[in-house]
Specification:
The complex is a heterodimer. Chain A is an alpha/beta fold. Chain A is built from 11 helices and 9 strands. The longest helix of chain A is centred in the last third of the chain and has 21 residues. In chain B, the strands form 2 sheets. In chain B, strands 2-1-3-4 form a 4-stranded parallel sheet, sandwiched between helices. Chain B has a two-stranded antiparallel ribbon with strand order 5-6. Classes of the chains: A alpha/beta, B alpha/beta.
């Protein structure tokens, strides 16, 4: 069996780079661990001392508000010291490589890197570099790399689904939209299939689907109405305008007509279906405001759960 | 001496502990906080025996343990629940066995993150010695001395009956 670079010799999580290849019990353990952390937010003092004295560096080579903020809140609620590096305005602009940046931060006694990068595999490279240079005590968390993976988003989505739907093995789940450019979709698909969801559907125009997506164990639909019929969970994706190259779509209005989630299309799903979105939303492009603000939407709870899930991941890594 | 005669009777100790606490609690105001898992069971017993108004709270100290860097975070889905206002309260922390005192230290630290209690007492079924911190129980009907290699664990049977078991490492 190929050894996963994220697990140590005891099978414990050393880094969190991708959901792909993580065994079901590891995913379940993360979700179980997140539950008591969600209660910390209800306290007078929203802090536990687990990571006191640890330094967490948020290395964001790509823009993000929600992910960076929730990682920062999660680390602070664990009592870590958080250093945010906005790389757009730092030495990377002067030509420093990723590994040189990391080496410099490691020399400042970093304990954990939370990395977002436009290049797929950048966090993996960083984890490998730390191992190769004998700095195994530094943990790497992937906060989104290129089109590859966004594992904490995938995990918080699983936490949300489990919160509302309890049993993964009874569900039909549809992922809708720009799968081609979406690291979120890849992490969701790996997590859902690993946790035993019997039917995972992807709904998208052919131009926004990677070839061979069926091999990940999903059913492909090009007609949204057909794909939404009878589903328990609708996971919307953001239309990634900034990653669009060439004419993949006629227009955003046309896209909304075929793939935008409206109350009328949502009515085809089960009556108690929940609607999720990783944010930021493009209202009127992939989702109608009536749905986004409607009673079936759990988009804001996703954000809240995201803090507990990220606390669980950081606490587990730091303890391993 | 066979083990069975050496181990204390947990049911009898629950009764004795409630009797020791009765003159010192105000049923309308005193609140109990059980430490997961054994302490929660004992707190439920004491709550019923003492007829306390407020439901007992429970606490999972794993986020406050001082051995986190050595032992890591063990998956523990038990959530702390404090269903009353800690500010100004008379709180009795309840645990099954008092040993090093580190768990109690962690529990007190956690309680203070909910507010400033007026008074904290400690009630345990038994004190096995081996303290590593200056912590003493307010109510404790039994004590015994055990070597470090042995662990005294409270267990709950399907019918709800409590009993002690000795685990040798």
């Amino acid at each position: 069996m190929q050894k996963s670079p994220q697990l140590n010799s005891h099978g414990e999580l050393q880094h969190l780079l991708t959901i792909e290849g993580l065994p079901r019990d590891v995913l379940t353990r993360i979700l179980d661990t997140a539950a008591p952390f969600s209660e910390v937010a209800e306290r007078e003092v929203k802090k536990v001392p687990l990571l006191r004295g640890k330094s967490v560096f948020n290395l964001f080579f790509e823009n993000s508000t929600r992910t960076r903020t929730t990682f920062e809140i999660a680390a602070k609620r664990l009592s870590a010291d958080v250093i945010n590096l906005n790389i757009n305005t730092s030495s990377a602009n002067k030509g420093e490589t990723l590994l040189d940046t990391a080496d410099n931060l490691a020399a400042m006694q970093a304990d954990m890197f939370v990395v977002r990068h436009a290049s797929s595999g950048a966090p993996f490279l960083l984890a490998q570099h730390m191992a190769a240079t004998g700095r195994d005590h530094i943990h790497v968390v992937n906060a989104g790399d290129g089109r590859h993976a966004h594992p904490t988003q995938g995990l918080l989505d699983m936490y949300t689904i489990r919160h509302y739907k309890t049993d993964f093995t009874q569900l039909t789940i549809a992922i809708v939209g720009d799968v081609l450019h979406s690291r979120v979709a890849r992490s969701q698909i790996h997590a859902l299939t690993t946790l035993g969801v019997p039917e995972v559907r992807v709904i998208a125009p052919k131009t926004l689907l990677p070839t061979g997506i069926e091999r990940l164990g999903v059913r492909v639909f090009h007609d949204m109405r057909e794909g939404l019929r009878g589903v328990d969970v609708v996971m919307m994706l953001r239309l990634q305008n900034e990653r669009m190259q060439g004419a993949l779509l006629p227009s955003t209005q046309e896209y909304f007509k075929s793939y935008g989630l409206t109350p009328e299309k949502l009515a085809l799903a089960k009556p108690d279906a929940i609607v999720m979105h990783p944010g930021p939303m493009n209202r009127g492009v992939e989702i109608d405001s009536a749905v986004a603000d409607g009673s079936q939407a759990v988009i804001l709870p996703q954000v809240t759960f995201g803090i507990a899930v990220r606390m669980a991941v950081m606490a587990m890594l730091a303890g391993n | 001496m066979p083990l069975s005669t050496r181990l204390p009777d947990a049911e009898a100790l629950c009764v004795a502990l409630a009797a020791a606490m009765r003159p010192h609690v105000d049923p309308a105001a005193t609140v109990l906080v059980g430490i997961h898992t054994g302490g929660v069971w004992v707190a439920e017993r004491l709550h019923a025996a003492l007829g306390l108004k407020m439901p007992p709270g429970s606490i999972n100290v794993s986020f406050y343990r001082d051995d986190f860097s050595q032992r890591g975070l063990h998956s523990n889905a038990k959530t702390s629940q404090i269903p009353f206002d800690v500010e100004g309260a008379h709180i009795v922390i309840v645990d099954d066995v008092l040993y090093t005192g580190r768990t109690i230290r962690a529990a007190m630290n956690e309680l203070f993150d909910y507010g400033r209690p007026a008074k904290i007492d400690l009630a345990v079924l038994t004190d096995r010695g081996g303290r590593e911190l200056p912590i003493a129980p307010s109510f404790c009907p039994h004590s015994l001395s055990l070597p470090a290699a042995q662990m005294l664990a409270l267990e709950r049977a399907a019918d709800g009956g409590l009993s002690f078991r000795l685990i040798t490492e």
